[in-house]
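Hi R.,

Here's the chain you asked about this morning:
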Amino acid sequence: MTFSQSRHGSRSGRPFQWLSALALLGACGALILLVVSPGARASTHRSVSGVSSHLACDAATINSAVHIPGASVDSATPISGSFTAPGPPSPPLTGLPSLCSVTLTQLDSAGNAIHVFLWLPDNWNGRFQGVGGAGFLCGPLYAELANGVVAGYATAATDCGSEDPTGSFALNKDGTLNTALIDDFAYTGIHDMTVDGKALTEDYYGSGPRYAYFNGCSTGGREGLMEAQRFPTDYDGIVSAAPAINWTKFIPAEIWPELVMLQSNDFLPSCKEAAFTDAVTVACGGVDGVIQDPGSCHWNPYDLVGTVTPCGTITATDAAVVEKIWDGPRSTSGQRLWYGLEPGASFAGLAGTSTSSNGTTTGVPFPIAVAWLGTWVQQNPNWDWHTLTYAEFDQLFQRSQDEFSSTIATDNPDLSQFRDHGGKIVIWHGLADQLIFPQGTINYYQRVQAAMGGPERTDSFARLFLAPGAQHCASAAGPAPGTPYAYPAVAMPLQNVVNWVEHGQAPDSILAVKIDPQTNIVTESRILCPYPETARYDGYGNPNLATSYRCSGRLGSGGWGDSGYIRDQAKR
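And the predicted structure, written out as tokens:
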């Protein structure tokens, strides 16, 4: 599957394409319509009050001013105060500034309807922000849109032509691959959203954005790196959090924990899994319950054999299962295929189980992994993962790469065009991520360093920050940089990227926090340091405050990120 740079001609030298959106995690409240007189654009300069002049917020006015080939403005609705997202009931998003919510529809080359959601604040800061998706959804995540406009950004999201979180859009009705929608999800949807979103922003305000930024986590993190690799001039700065890069390797690897338990005939009840997590955290973690450097943790799960838990005594078979899960997938010949869960990360995401009232425990695999291997790789949405063997896993792992790596792997380490454009990127990943293996991100960053002339030259435009104890896109035992999925988001590193792009201030650290979910108050903070540095407590200050830490340590080598890495195991 190949990609095309543009499907719709150009205007003022810019290719114009399509966009879209969805509802996933966002929440928003009562839609308030404002009385606005229709009319043409006023002055192209911002008023003294700080409110930007702009077109009237109605579909007819915007449609007449915006000329994107094949696209139409479906709606333009004033919003102020609160907004309730469509879809399943969710709390309203409150505290929103006055803005214009614009929805576009455009058809892709195969006739699929792409929707783009653009939120345009009255008090615009002169910047454009693209936001990403999660899982098999490009978006929209309304919390991301809300975070963007509260900070003054013209903010865009898209659904890439699908609102189905199961990934079934990969197949046509006849069971063949839907290459158009696959390409839309992989790269063209976000790029087209960006090009068209910038154009509409310019027409709406009368002047184009001075800078463009992308902000996303998980699938959104992958989309940010995809932009840097395929469309290096789209954005000036990118935040790529817990990125779903190496997609064709890590997604198959996500079913490895369930395969190990299946083949061992030993699905671990959740309390046994918790016992292993608690024990390794005691052995390798600090007093705060955080394993700072999982790559240097060599605790032996066999040490727990014989321990009595509420769901049974831990056996040698249980320990062997955990050992294989932490070690990661290997071929039947013993060759390492990918990485495993880090010690201390929750088993619930990829090694989920359910125990019935009669005591029978069964596996609950991560749905995205099952859909990928069944619907995408085998083109069989009815595939029964219980039939999977180690030998078949080897074959599917290779088929995943052969069929889709050129489309969605997003692991090209050559970021020279992005660098030469002046782009800056911050990547961060939680070291207790329960869904996407952080060693894959470390591996990618090391390959970027090799391709870009070494660590020092890479640090001039791309930096990786690792968050000990943080889970996928969020804090857990350890704090995390704010995720765009939460509203209001606290401590997101986007401002670090803005300072880097616009003021030349490279981030020597970024802030990570833990939030009380009831009050949204910060209860703990740390600094995260550029890889391979790590924060160390200064020995004097409050250990719950970031100001008490310095970037004075280094992560243990432990072979992290090395594709040939074999984790040292304590001898039995």
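The two ends are 48 Å apart (CA to CA).

Let me know if you need anything else.
M.
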